[in-house]
Fold:
Amino acid sequence: MISKICTGHSFYGSIRYVCQEKKKAEILGFEGVRGYNQKLMVQDFERQHGLRPEKKQACFHGILSFYPGERPSDGKILEIARKYLAGLNIRNTQYVFVKHTDKAHLHLHLIANMVDNTGRTISDRWIALRGKKQAQKLTLEYKLTQSLSKHLSRTEYQNLREPEKYQYKIYAAVKHHLRDSRSMDQLQERLQPLGIEIQYKYKGHTEEKQGISFRLGEYCFKGSKIDRQFSFANLQKTFSMTEKQVLARKLDIKTTKYVPGSGPVFYSESQRFGKEVSYQMHKILDILLRQEEDYEQMSYELSQEAKRRRRRHLNE
Structure:
């Protein structure tokens, strides 16, 4: 199950989109609003928002998307939705849950008022991140299928809104060309013909890179917003792993050597390296042993000479 939170929408626009513009829409539950009529619903939301008109973004619009083919019961969906809002500390307020079945995956729209029933505002600090964590927690709690990555083959591009459509285009392009790129520069060369530009965020007034964004047309997205694996740090790790794999393949290039009486013997460069290390270690050990033997021999001769000197001293 995946969580997505839309910001900056009005109650009128959100309710109209989730209820009126979608043919396969079903209201599963509501609280504090007259859910049987869209206009009255909007009026109820806006009336409560009027208790704190300074709260600019009072409309919470969240989406919970289930894995393609997963069809939990309406009762379970309602239970998950209420726990999801409670986990975000969206309590004692108006809400409406609308189920959509117009895509390959079932998804639920949650509209809630960020001004509660007592006129207090509900904090939306880091709410997108908290929403993702809450969705992951509920996915495990209800033993739902985890969506660990985007499934491009199941993505219906015609149903995506324009910003999200551009985001998926960037995701598909970066994922495809990342496999053959060994550095940021190579990745940029492959993305440029597609109209995708890489932009960096620098640390203070230095030239140290600490963030990355991808621009396509008028839209620009942080790498981590497109996908967590596309953050600057994770991309650097990917390139580092690619370099290690290339080096390992070079070491494993097969070579041959003719051994008298045995014919050609095939072994890898890594085996050659191991044999060479073993040979050098034997040489060092042999030298140390010889030094030890020489030392013992020298010690014996010195001890005998000392005995002879003592005897001569006694006889004198």
